[in-house]
Amino acid sequence: MHQNEIIAFNHELLAWFQQNGRDLPWRRTKNPYYIWVSEVMLQQTQVDTVKPYYDRFITDFATPEALADAPEQSVLKMWEGLGYYSRARNLQQGVREVVEKYDGKLPDDKKKLLELHGIGPYTAGALLSIAFGQPEPAIDGNVMRVMSRVFMIDADIAKAKSKKQFEEVVGKLIAEANPSAFNQALMDLGAMICRPKRPDCPNCPVRRQCKAYSARVQEKYPVKSRPKKATVRCYAIVLVQDQLGRYLIEQRTDSGLLAGFWQFPMVECETNSDLLPAAFRKLASVERLDFHYIHRFSHLVWDLTLYRVDQAIDLPAGVARKWVAVDEFERYPFPVPHLKVIDWLKNLRMNT
DNA sequence: AACACGGGGGC
DNA sequence: GCCCCAGTGTT
Predict the structure, then answer these.
(1) Most exposed of A167, A177, A230, A351 (fewest Cβ within 10 Å)?
(2) A76 CA to C5 C1' distance (Å)
(3) Nucleotide minimizing C1' to CA distance for residue A143
(4) Considering the domain boundaries, does residue A146 fall inside one?
(5) Are residues A215 and A241 in the same domain?
(6) Which residue has the closest alpha carbon to C9 C1'?
(7) pLDDT of residue A348
(8) What is the pLDDT of residues A216-265, one digit of tens each?
(9) In a domain, A309, yes or no
(10) In a shared domain, residues A72 and A128
(11) For strand C, which nucleotides have at least one atom less than 7 Å from a protein CB?
(12) How many Å apart are A120 CA and C9 C1'?
C-alpha cells in the first residue's frame, strides 16, 4: 500500500469509527486498570456477554488493591459463567504484581507490561494504545480477519507464526496521531462490518483499499485450518443428601479444567453405555433422574446424567467436600453444567 | 509449535 | 450442528 493509500485508509476508518463506533462501558473510562479488566474479559468472549460481568467486576473490585486483597474464590464467583477461568486467576496475580512492584499503577512500558502475569502481546498492545496512547498494534482474531482481507494474506490465522505478518502490516498502517481510536476502530470494523460470514462490504469504509473486495474474494478470507474434534467424556453426577437435606459438593483441584470450582461429585462412566457406573452397583437405592445434559467445551464434551443415591458412595480421597444447603450454593463458584443442576433442583422443589 | 483452557451467540 | 469470538500460559 502506498503512502497516500495508507493515509486514505486511516482517514476513512477513523471517520467511520467516529460516526459508528460502539459506546461501550470501558470506553467511557481512562482508568488503565478498568481497561485492563475489560481487555481480559474480552479475550475469546463477545462484547454483549462481557458487559454485565464488567459492570459487576469494577463495582466489587473498584481498585487494583481491592482485587489484590480479594479471596480467589470471590473472584472466581464473579467470573462464574464467563469461562476461561484462568483469565481471572491470571488477572488477579498480575494485579497483585502491580500493587507490589508499581504501587498499584499499571506501567506504560511494553516490557514491564509483558512481564505481568496474564498480559501477552495482545493485551499489552491494547493497553499501550488505548490506555497510554502509544502506536502499538493489538493483533487479535478480529484484526487478523480484517487484514487478511485488506491485503489478501494467505497465512493460516490458526497458526501462531502467522501473527508476525499481521503485526507488520498493522505496524505500517497504524495512525500515529490516534492509535487508541485506530485499534478500537479495527475491532469495531471486524465485529460490525468485516464479519466472519457475509461481510457487509458495501458499507465498509475501507472497501476501496481492500484487495479481497476488489477481487470479490472476501468470503475466501481469512484462511483458517480446522481444529481437531473434541473428545466425549461421560459422567454420572451424584446427588446425595445428609439428614439435614444438605447436598454433598466437592472442590475441583487447583489446576487444570475449572480449577478451584465446586461441583456435585462426578463419576466417570463408560462412554456409550447404559450400564450403571460401577461405583453405584452395590448401593441399595440408586435413582436415575430426569436430567441429561451435553456440555461442549472447545476441546471436550461432557455427557452428563444425574443420579440420586441414598448414601455417600466411595469417592476418591484427597478431595475437599462439604454438605451445603441449596440456599447456600450461591456462595460457591460452580461451572455452568452444575448451575444447570442447581436450577433443576430448585424447580423440582418449587413443583413439589 | 502444539496444546489446554469455557461459554455464549449467530445462523 | 458448526463456527465464531478483544489470547495467554504451559510444555
Answers:
(1) A351
(2) 21
(3) C6
(4) yes
(5) no
(6) A118
(7) 87
(8) 999 999 999 988 888 999 999 999 999 999 999 999 999 999 999 999 99
(9) yes
(10) yes
(11) 3-9
(12) 9
Q: What are the pLDDT digits (tens) for A15-51?
A: 999 999 999 999 999 999 999 999 999 999 999 999 9
Bases of strand B lying below 7 A from some protein CB: 1-11
Q: Name the closest residue (CA) to the C1' of nucleotide B6.
A: A83
The tens digit of pLDDT for each residue in A66-114 reads 999 999 999 999 999 999 999 999 999 999 999 999 999 999 999 999 9
Tell me the per-residue pLDDT of A105-132, one tens digit each, with 9 for 90 and over.
999 999 999 999 999 999 999 999 999 9
Per residue in A282-319, pLDDT (tens digit) is 777 889 999 999 999 998 999 999 999 987 678 888 99
Q: Give the type of residue at A13.
A: L
Cell numbers that stand for A118 in this block: 496474564
pLDDT in the model for residue A277: 77
**Distance B7 C1' – A66 CA (angstroms):** 27
Residues of A labelled as active-site residues: 39
d(CA A186, CA A168): 15
Q: Domain residues for A9?
A: 3-220
Residue nearest to nucleotide C7 (CA to C1'): A43
Q: What Cα–Cα distance (Å) separates residue A342 from each residue in A81, A313, A332, A338?
A: 14, 20, 12, 6
Q: What's the number of domains chain A is made of?
A: 2
Nearest-angstrom CA–CA distance, A212 and A177:
27
Point out the residue nearest to B11 (C-alpha to C1'): A197
How high is the pLDDT of residue A172?
94
CA of A131 to C1' of C5 (A): 23
- Both A30 and A129 in one domain: the answer is yes
Q: Work out the angle between the directed axes of helices A163-173 and A3-20 (0-180°, nearest 10).
A: 90
In terms of domains, do A161 and A239 share one? no
Contact A35, A91 (CB under 8 A): no
Question: Does A226 fall in a domain?
Answer: no
A290: amino acid identity, one letter: D
